[in-house]
Amino acid sequence: MKNKEAVDIVYLWVDGSDPVWRLKRHRAMALGGAASDNDLAAFGNVEGRFRDNQELRYSLRALDRFFPEHGHVYIVTDGQVPDWLVTTPGVTVIDHCELIPESSLPTFDSGHIETYIHRIPGLNERYFYFNDDVFFGAPVRLSDWFWSEGVYAAWSDEPEVSDEALRQDATALDNACRLSIQWLTDNAQTNQDSDDMTCVAIEPYRATFRTFAHAPRPMLRSMLFDLEALVPELFAMSRSTVFRAWDKPTIVSDFVLRWALHNGLARLREYSHLHVSTGDTGESLALEQLRSRVGTLHFFCINDTTDDAHHDDPRLTRVLAVLQQVLPAPSRFERD
What is the pTM of this model? Predict the structure, then answer.
């Protein structure tokens, strides 16, 4: 019987080399999945966004090593299953068509897909949402991620986003920051009292033009359902995409946390973390730091920014070698 008190785990995963999936992706683009190239977010359809460099395998190894008492694991995919995955009672593969209306499929935008994960049947109230390039890096204490009434969040180390209008050449996360702040600034001035239908002034939204760290996302299922009812227009915008668009909000990776911080359902905290960008000139140095710091990091992220590089690019093979070195023990989800 499933432990309803455990903290479940949800991953998004895709194998961008799968020929059936690639054909679906190219057909979607040819049929106007992005109405024009001008609608695509920066890096919205590059190979690095969909490449599988075995990150999920190693993220599950880190999960077993650093958080063995986790709950059920759900892997959300588009008609795919990792060939190394063992089917056990502790893991369920969820196809997009089980969560997302047929009229909205296919979609290749993680920002779209993640707006549905709180609808996974049987998902526990508390769960972590992971992109497959995010890893726990030290033993997990739930008190570092959840508190009695909410969750914790962390800013990234990236420079602040400029306080200006949406920019087509900006990253999707930068524009998501601007969109979230715009909505909260316009709508967080008053709150209607449900008993007497009067409007009660609340504290104005204080904007912070920073993005959130690429981290395990502690989430409360009830909070996502509440937000889906509160801001249906934002969910509809996020759910309108086939490929990532530069002018659409990012609900789970940005808006939820800003809204929760403003409403006292999230608190900021500092984490020991490391972000590796595979396309950066400092990749080798960052990987050396990772080698020496795994076991002391709350989390780390290996972001594939090699874009349209070939799958055997040396930068990618270096990442795989380091992951094998720091996480050599197979998880219980792997075939022998």
Answer: 0.93
